[in-house]
Design goal:
Layout: H1 3-11, H2 15-40, H3 47-130, H4 135-158
Helix pairs in contact: 1-3, 2-3, 3-4
Amino acid sequence: MSPKNLSTSTILRSPKSILLIVLVLVFLTEFLVMVALPIILPSPMSKFGEALIDAVLLTVVIAPVLWWLIHAAKRAEDNRLLVAREAEALRGQQMATLAQLATGVAHEIRNPLTSVKMLVQVHLGALSEQGLPTEDMQIVEQEIRRMERSVNSLLEYARPEASEFKQFSIQ
């Protein structure tokens, strides 16, 4: 967004600033009309004629400015919504990529971990039948379970959340 559009967008977000711009324009236009009217039309004119010319000149000068203000405010709001949508779409893409990465990593860790766990359990059973110490194997099994919990946490993080639909104001 260009600096000019950014400043216009910032000014046009506030109803107070829009009202101030309109009031200043109406005042300046009315002032110029009152100063220029006797110079342009020096002949005496009825109050009705002066009021009519005053109203026409005021309308001709202010209407395009008001039109521009209204459309600039709409463009600023449309631009703000577009930026918000683009940011949300980018965030969605990033989350989808992260989910794919987490799922792949979890799969690559979980498969060998399961094989190691099965071997430890088999050897743990064999060692206990022979009456040999099994403390080391039990520690290995506990650590494997801890790693499995970490992998499951990673998968839970990567899993998309359930959507929640509700109405809200976008102002």
